[in-house]
Design brief:
Layout (H helix, E strand, L loop, with lengths): L5 H10 L4 H7 L4 H11 L15 H8 L4 H9 L22 E3 H8 L6 H18 L5 E3 L13 H5 L4 E5 L4 H10 L5 E6 L7 H8 L6 E6 L13 H7 L8 E5 L7 H4 L8 E3 L7 H4 L9 E4 L4 H9 L7 E4 L11 H15 L5 E6 L3 H13 L5 E6 L9 H4 L3 H25 L6 E6 L5 H9 L6 E5 L7 H12 L3 E6 L2 H5 L6
Parallel strand pairs: 1-2, 2-3, 3-4, 4-5, 5-6, 6-7, 7-8, 8-9, 9-10, 10-11, 11-12, 12-13, 13-14
Organism: Rhizophagus irregularis (strain DAOM 197198w)
InterPro entries: LRR_dom_sf
Protein name: F-box domain-containing protein
Length: 507
């Protein structure tokens, strides 16, 4: 491995660009490996979730070493403590590899050894000035906590015209968005966190409207927002986004309030490959106009199963992933039983190539029958989440439910019966390609049936995730360890409901 040529190493390290631990290990192999790993690490050095940047003195030292003598002298006169420098040439021109700015991380790095806010502000200014001067181009900008109008810096025009990914939030003053709109018109990925409802979003609307190659758009309302009756909060955002309808292939929009403009705009995004949204404001007639023939990834919430079925029916049969929004389920729509049944039927009828699937349904015979049909048709399934919820308990209070031991015993028997019925279907019908099962809801697996299920997977390796603590019991642990030892179970984990439901979360 240590004798691989430079081109092969570069391709390997590109694949590892999100894995900082592996890349740091590669630095230690030899000089050739180090020379090829450093540009990958420094392409976007602020993006690694496993790094605490407040403790990374070496990053502070490297960046500060680029400051001119005059700038260092000026900063120190303000009382800013800079690291002592040996004036030895750096092994690499690190900033020449960098193509990203993260304002949160810059703030963390500049806070090292600094206690006063105005000192940190001055140091941030000098760091951003360096970035504009030394970066060959700017590809990624996360400016959620920005305090400097860096687009006015010298050389900013040359850097910002190459920007392809922007993350921001609505707490930022509109002037920043107007500034960016003058320089950045070819952003491909735009992610916006709406942290406070404002009346107009003028700056953001302007920035969205000037884009000529926007492919990925994400908008999420974060936290609680006050509602202004009669106001279509998101109208200007959507109508501005509509200008990019022929380019956008990934759309992730989660509004806290019903948007009356959504049914007018959403049918225009006819090239979508991934879609995450709610359809609360859509009638059936409006939903039928939303035709996405190239759709491959679709995420909905459990309230929108009926709407999701219509979208699936009008898709082009290319869906690979159908996911549920990962949050606690407390209530169900009045048509949940019917909608969930239609949802299962729509999948096995219109999604023959599905690979990753989330299902939520009650433990009724009709639903289990349709699940069995789905499993026999969808041979490409690799990952399956099953949430079985008994809505007949929804109106019972805890006091009524626990008023005598008979209720507890009956509930336990129902849970075991639900689990046994589900496992029997999986034993007889689950496709052999499945590598991951996730289980949540109102069912427990009887020990004997669980062993029977695991026996059918001999020669395969399964990962099983659940939110139920019953499987921490001694008998279950013993059984699970038995099938771990013989290779049937690769991984068995108990985690929170939200993490289990989140199919993108690697437990």
């Amino acid at each position: 491995m240590s004798k691989l040529n430079k081109d092969i190493l570069f391709l390997i390290f590109e694949e590892l660009q999100d894995d900082s631990k592996s890349l740091f290990s590669c630095l230690m192999v030899n000089r050739l490996w180090c020379e090829n790993a450093i540009p990958i690490l420094w392409k976007n050095p602020w993006s690694y979730n496993d790094i605490n940047y407040k403790n990374k003195n070496y990053l502070f030292t490297i960046i500060a070493s680029y400051l001119s003598y005059d700038v260092k002298e000026s900063l120190m006169r303000y009382g800013i403590r800079l690291p002592s420098f040996s004036y030895q040439t750096l092994l690499f021109d690190y900033l020449s590899f960098c193509r990203s700015i993260n304002t949160d991380t810059t703030k963390s790095i500049t806070s090292i050894g600094i206690s006063l806010a105005h000192e940190q502000y001055l140091l941030e200014h000098e760091f951003y000035y360096l970035f504009m001067k030394k970066f060959p181009e700017l590809k990624y900008l996360d400016m959620k906590s920005i305090r400097h109008q860096i687009f006015h810096y010298p050389d900013a025009m040359l850097r910002f015209e190459s920007l392809c990914e922007l993350k921001c939030d609505t707490s930022i003053d509109s002037s920043y968005f107007y500034g960016l709109a003058q320089l950045c018109q070819y952003i491909q990925k735009l992610i916006i966190a709406n942290v406070n409802v404002v009346n107009d979003y003028h700056g953001i609307v302007e920035l969205i409207g000037v884009q000529k190659n926007l492919k990925y758009f994400e908008w999420r309302d974060v936290g609680y927002h006050s509602y202004i009756p009669g106001l279509d909060h998101y109208k200007k955002i959507l109508f501005s986004l509509e200008k990019s309808a022929n380019n956008i292939i990934h759309l992730n929009i989660v509004f806290q309030y019903i948007c009356l403009s959504s049914p007018k705009v959403f049918p225009k995004f006819h090239k979508l490959k991934s879609l995450i949204t709610y359809f609360d404001s859509f009638s059936k007639e409006q939903l039928k106009k939303c035709v996405y023939r190239d759709l491959e990834i679709f995420m909905i919430d459990h309230y929108n199963l009926g709407a999701a079925s219509i979208i699936i029916e009008n898709s082009g049969g290319h869906l690979k992933k159908i996911l549920l929004e990962p949050y606690e389920i407390e209530e169900f729509g009045v048509n949940f039983n019917e909608d969930s049944l239609t949802f299962i039927r729509s999948i096995h009828k219109f999604c023959p190539s599905i690979e990753c699937l989330s299902l939520i349904f009650p433990p009724l015979n009709e639903h289990l029958t349709e699940l069995k049909i789905l499993l026999k048709i969808c041979h490409n399934l690799k990952s399956l989440l099953l949430i079985m919820v008994d809505t007949s308990y929804e109106d019972l209070t805890e006091e009524n439910f626990l008023e005598n031991g008979e209720n507890l015993l009956e509930n336990r028997e129902n849970l075991l019966e639900n689990g046994e019925n589900l496992l029997e279907i999986l034993i007889s019908s689950a496709p052999i390609n499945i590598k991951e099962f996730r289980f949540c809801g109102d069912f427990d697996f009887p020990l004997e049936t669980l062993e029977k299920f695991l026996e059918t997977w001999k020669g395969c390796t399964l990962s099983i995730f659940t939110s139920e603590s019953i499987y921490e019991g001694d008998d279950y642990v013993k059984l699970i360890n038995k099938y771990k030892n013989n290779g049937v179970i690769k991984d068995f984990r108990i985690d929170s409901f939200i993490n289990v439901v989140n199919m993108n979360h690697k437990i």
